[in-house]
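During the first year of the project, the team set up a workflow for recording each protein of interest as an amino acid sequence followed immediately by a discrete structure-token representation. This format lets reviewers and collaborators read both layers of information side by side without switching files. As required by the reporting guidelines, we include two representative entries from the current panel. The first entry is reproduced here exactly as it appears in our internal archive.
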Amino acid sequence: MTTWRTFGRRSSPVDPKHIAKLAVGPKHYPDDRFSDGEAVLSEIIVGDAFGADRIDYLLRDSHHAGVAYGRFDHQRLIDTLRILPRGDYGSREPALGIEEGGVHSAEALLLARYFMYTQVYFHPVRRAYDLHLKEFLQAWLPAGRFPTDLSQHLETTDNEVTSGLLEAARGSQSTGHESARRIAARQHFKVAYERNPNDLNLHPDPRKALYEATLEHFGSTRVRRDAYTEKGRALDFPVLLRDRGIAPSLRVSEALNRIPVVAVDYILVAPEIHEEVMEWIKGNREMTLRQAPREED
């Protein structure tokens, strides 16, 4: 059996299978058995609650984006992390948990993630550029996707994509020109409508109804919808109480139970028609929602 000690020996190179297991964790690698040590180590690296990857990207991205949303007391969090039995989860299998004194830091971590997603990662301008890049790659890449052959895949670096994008932006007849031009010239699609809870009084799915009406009126080449709703799943982990008992975090913290899911829904339109679409939606919104078909109809 390959152990961690043998990883440094030339006769026993690192097994890619071990790296893959730790990189994705048991949830995404169900076809292989994880030892207790592998499962905990994977949680430390990529775990949903306290993975080093999550802690790093929030702090790093908030720093480089110049915002405070992703900051939290990571030193306190790390100091109070413990390997604990799952206890009330019906298993004695070890899991990454936290001392009760670190619960507020854990709450701050998960709130920081929510704020970074809603204010930075899902900012409509960033999402618009994602949309343009995706559409460019679908047009520019052979068969509309990156090659799965390893050597070919590794040859397609950021340099090749950037070079191809610039070439396409300069040539009006080039494949993917329209999307490339919008990226290079910063003429990205803009928000004409986003989630408005008041519209639920008029239609059970107002965003879809308005999108379809806008699409019909202004055409598919200049209108896009960007919708995402996080799968509702509160993170639960063991907490070491001050009396040395262990309890699930969702019983210890009301805040963890109340962190909202990330949900965005934008109607994005070409900048040259942005004002026109805004005025059209403003004047036709109520009538459109009242007259739009409902699923139960």
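The second entry, processed by the same pipeline in the following quarter, appears below.
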Amino acid sequence: MQLGPVARAQGVRLLAFDEIDSTNDEARRLAAAGERGPLWVVAARQTKGRGRLGREWISSSGNLHASLLLSGFGPERSAPQLGFVAGVAAFEALTALVGDASRFALKWPNDLLLDGAKLGGILLEAVSAPTGDPRTPREVKAIVGIGVNCRAAPVGLPFEARALADTGATVSPAGLLARLSDEWIAAFDAWRGGEGFATLRARWLERAAGIGAEIRVALPRETLHGRFETLDPLGRLILATADGERAIDAGEVMLPELSGAKGARA
């Protein structure tokens, strides 16, 4: 495993494991110990991989399991936008390696789709760690976890999943990581700590699944039905319902072509 040439030139580092509990958990431990990044943590296999809301992420060998630890990314309030940076970077890496961009899409808030089925997911976490400086005793660091089914997709899930191998292309985790690490640099530079989010948001929307479609969004206390209008300037999903527009910070989106899904694992 190695990072792409652009990432290496930018001083990004890599820590690779044959097996680990979770790349996000290892990044969290490193952050607590003083690591500031930018550092990619990757593993051939995870024994306790997890997705959003603590759900299990099935981590088969031959797939990509990676987490990026970084700090100094901008105002703390802009941290949630890093999920959109990751989505755009992942989309660009996938289409560069496989081609046929029409087969890939981004599903709000954090899924990667291939032919309408789940290909991968993004798990964004933040950790507050001591700095050792009494003037600013603590610092928020971001961990961006990215999992992609390269060789095989899990079976027996309550939703359809696919792997890059289903396209007929041979994409290794190492090859995907190298391209992804370079595409991250490009997307992150365009984002500029949130100053360029409007441009990045437009790029994300061009690649999004379900825009203009009737969807369902499961919230903790209700399920909403309506038309997926857009994302607002904060990255919230704007849903046009019978009772008016709703801005949604987080939820489980069910698209028409994925009507049998019960929520994603990342």
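For the second entry, the following points were noted during internal review. The mean pLDDT is 89. The helical segments are 5-9, 23-32, 82-98, 173-191, 197-206. Both points are flagged for discussion at the upcoming steering committee meeting.
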